[in-house]
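Researcher: I'd like a structural prediction for the single chain below. Treat it as a standalone chain; there are no partners to consider.
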Amino acid sequence: MMRRLAVMQETHNLSRLRLFSGNSNTALVHKIAEHLRTPMGKAVVKTFSDGEVNVEINESVRGMDVFAIQSICSPVNNNLMELLIMIDALKRASAERITAVLPYYGYARQDRKVSPRAPITAKLVADLITVAGTSRILTMDLHAGQIQGFFNIPVDHLFAAPILLEYLKNLQNDTVMVSPDAGGVERARAFAKRLDASLAIIDKRRDSPNVSEVMNIIGDVKGLVAVILDDMVDTGGTLARAAHALMEKGAKKVYACCTHPVLSGRAIEILSEAPIEEMIVTDTIPLSATARELSKIKVLSVSGLLADAIERIYNDDSVSSLFV
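Model: Treating it as a single chain, here is the predicted structure.
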């Protein structure tokens, strides 16, 4: 009787919460809904024969606290338009608050001008999402933390670290965390501290144009299990070269660990041939059928973490306390 009462109270507490999903990562959204024990919102997100996106919200959201969940992954532009049109539809249907939940923020690597007359597309995307009618943003492991400042609305930035660390604890004790570049040292150092592991850095240099990139290892990896840590893996080329360099320096085994498995181009072919024992990723981006066939890829789900954050936002509780 007490259990039934607790469930009834929880259902009542989430009575004004609604989850809506685009087509980019429906499997993840279903898992989030299961964690929250709340049904998915009734909506149809489809594409007309001429390529235009159409969204139909098939239930009342007037006065509701709505969470529109969409990874801006491949096909990036289509998924972005789905998100923008879905937010516009929810706003025009009188939703009280709309939170855009972006497990993966596309265009994040275009966060600054790298050459004259170059765009800052990450800022443009932030403006589009805001103007569409979004009240706040919930995202995970941004490629560049300063993207939070591109928004003039609240941004809750989650980290997949707790989930990845829990899995990495099962590896051998003789572990060295490896940052693939100077920019990722802080992340690798934090993981090394939590795992009581050592730290190594890969220094990539190209002595002259059209000459292959040389990878120098800073730190001792001989006889250790090396774990290359990054926020995403795209084509896999740098990761594969790093794995070869670590093995040449005497690493016992090489693992790779990242949050976002972009895996574009020949990534699956490259990773399958690389001396990587296991590629640990999360489900912020769904794997292609080909990627799912690669046995060395291990997928961990961030659905529980996102569900906890959504519930905290709904209840106006602290989200940062998830990482204390």
